[in-house]
Design a protein that fits this description.
Ubiquitin-like (UB roll); about 500 residues; alpha+beta; Uridine Diphospho-n-acetylenolpyruvylglucosamine Reductase, domain 2; about 35% helix; binds flavin-adenine dinucleotide; 20 strands; 5-stranded antiparallel sheet; Enolase-like, domain 1; 3 domains; binds FE2/S2 (inorganic) cluster; 5-stranded mixed sheet
Length: about 500
């Protein structure tokens, strides 16, 4: 790559900072605590679950600078190049921040270990609320959403929620606004220099190409390198499984992968679009997608993780693939040889095996926007917040005169890959929506999958839940006045009810 820079460059608070990356695996958390001696940011789980390590990452975006709560334990330091990192120390450096004050006022901390993470998440919420310029106060749902990725074992959430309300009704500190204006100017100037990052050491290299062309070049030069997107999987390979990556290519600085383009017929989401950014647009397709993405990890995980990563990792329990398959999505896969487009369901070949050759990467996913499609999806997990699916069912059908003309049903958690229920689809196609069809479709569904028993659910539970989700879909298709039944909280007992209007 031409003009490459060899040191990671970022704003630490308001301080321009350059770091020689001796080890491409260095996490932001380890850098902060060990190298920068900013020990206010804590390490709890080191796997993105507890939020003790939450920091704010400032990045230049279309609308200006924005601050995203992020789990520093699973961010690699090279990923913050040309960005700003704010820790709990930076918030209170000049004058105590309103969130810190509110946590003290409301007794939002006992042992205090989790507190810096909470403070950073709430500072992110206060920032987001102030950007909206709305007079309506932040509501409980927004507070819960911002706190879902922060675990407190001793205070209890009541005082923390009270602190959130108090802090979000206070204005942003004036010093914060002045600092962000300066930070934005610096970050924009750095970005405009257009220099890609390429740090090489005897332990390997970390490269962050800034164009598709540069990506092709560096992938050809290093065919075995690991492609890194949001690191919400890869971070754990390092912190939990002890892997040491020697060649890392970060995709997060390539504008072509960050695009989200929509017209009347289709929505194309670049592989590098974060789950949080994608959620607004996906939610317009169906409110179910809004609910699903709200339950995808936590705010921190969604800010970091990408749509492309959720597909490319080939996980059988990834939340987006079943949904995208049911919607009839196609995957665009790029290499130096050009771009090929495949139906998404053919991408998942077997457990851990995807249709992705060396030198190829996922460029985007294209979702046809078909207004006649009756789409629903449901995630079943043990907890509402921050839990991996035991079963995820996604259903999309087109009806003509009460007859099913076209149907795609896809499940996560039921097989070694996200998988369509082909037998069930066949039992539905060309049939009226009535009790007999449902009974046949349920029987067929039982032959589609042979799920496993693991810590999330037993095989029997999974089969049963999948059948019940099918029945729930039938209810949704055939009944117009059951809104409460769709609510996750009133889930139990549905399969015992007869479905009306068959
Ligand atoms: C606390 C926590 C909660 C989570 N909750 C959920 C959840 O509720 N639902 C869920 O589905 N997942 C969940 N995950 C898993 C993870 O967040 C998602 O799978 C996420 O979408 C991965 O994206 P990423 O950008 O972080 O991928 P990375 O970790 O950067 O990469 C993952 C894999 O994809 C490859 N890759 C990434 N982008 C590309 C590309 N463009 N082309 C080719 N290969 C690529 C990488 O090489 C790697 O093999 C959770 C993870 C954590 C840590
Ligand atoms: S230490 Fe638990 S999320 Fe980072
Ligand atoms: S104050 Fe102790 S874990 Fe939250």
């Amino acid at each position: 790559m031409q003009n490459a820079r060899g040191r990671v460059r970022f704003l630490l608070g308001s301080q321009p900072t350059e770091v020689e990356l001796a080890d491409p695996n260095l996490t932001l958390l380890d850098y902060l605590r060990t190298h920068a001696r900013l020990t206010g940011t804590k390490e709890g789980c080191a796997e993105g679950d507890c939020g003790a390590c939450t920091v704010l990452i400032g990045e230049v975006h279309d609308q200006g600078l924005r601050y995203l709560p992020t789990n520093a334990c699973i961010v690699l330091l090279g990923m913050v190049d040309n960005k700003q990192v704010l820790t709990v120390e930076h918030l209170g450096r000049e004058k105590i921040h309103p969130v810190q004050q509110a946590m003290a006022d409301q007794h939002g901390s006992q042992c205090g270990f989790c507190t810096p993470g909470f403070v950073m998440s709430l500072a992110g919420l206060q920032w987001a609320a102030s950007c909206k310029n709305e007079s309506t106060p932040v509501d409980r749902a927004q507070i819960d959403e911002y706190l879902a990725g922060n675990l407190c074992r001793c205070t209890g959430y009541g005082p923390i929620v009270s602190a959130a309300r108090e802090a979000c009704s206070a204005p942003l500190p004036e010093s914060w606004q002045a600092h962000t204006a300066v930070a934005e100017t610096t970050l924009r100037a750095w970005q405009n220099q257009g220099q890609p990052l390429c740090c090489t050491s005897d332990r390997g290299f970390f490269a962050a190409p800034r164009s598709r062309a540069d990506l092709h070049t560096i992938m050809s030069d290093h065919p075995g390198a690991t492609l890194l997107a949001g690191a919400t999987d890869i971070g754990l390979w390092i912190t939990k499984w002890g892997q040491r990556l020697s060649a890392v290519i970060y995709l997060g600085q390539i504008p072509e992968l960050q695009r989200l383009v929509q017209n009347d017929e289709k929505l194309e989401i670049g592989a590098g679009v974060s789950l949080q950014d994608a959620s607004t647009t996906l939610s317009e397709i169906s409110p179910d997608l809004n609910r699903l993405l709200r339950r995808f990890g936590s705010r921190q995980v969604r800010n970091q993780g990408t749509v492309g990563g959720n597909i490319a990792n080939g996980s059988p329990i990834g939340d987006l693939p079943p949904v995208l398959i049911a919607l009839g999505a196609r995957l665009r896969i790029a290499s130096t040889g050009g771009v090929r487009e495949i139906p998404l369901d053919t991408f998942f070949v077997d457990y851990g095996q995807q249709d992705l050759a060396p030198g190829e990467f996922v460029e985007s996913v294209v979702i046809p926007l078909d207004r006649d499609l009756r789409f629903r999806c449901w995630k079943i997990a043990k907890r509402f917040d921050q839990d991996i699916s035991a079963v995820l069912g996604a259903f999309a059908a087109k009806l003509e005169g009460g007859i099913v003309r076209e149907v795609r049903i896809c499940f996560g958690g039921m097989a070694a890959t996200p998988k369509r229920a082909r037998q069930c689809e066949a039992a539905l196609t060309g049939q009226p929506l009535d009790h007999e069809t449902l009974a046949r479709a349920r029987q067929a569904l039982a032959t589609d999958f042979d799920p496993i028993t693991d810590m999330r659910a037993s095989a029997h539970y999974r089969q049963r839940a999948a059948g019940n989700l099918l029945e729930k879909y039938f209810l949704a298709m055939t009944t117009t006045d059951l809104p409460d039944l769709y609510d996750e909280k009133t889930w139990p007992g549905l399969s015992n009810q007869s479905f009306a209007n068959g």
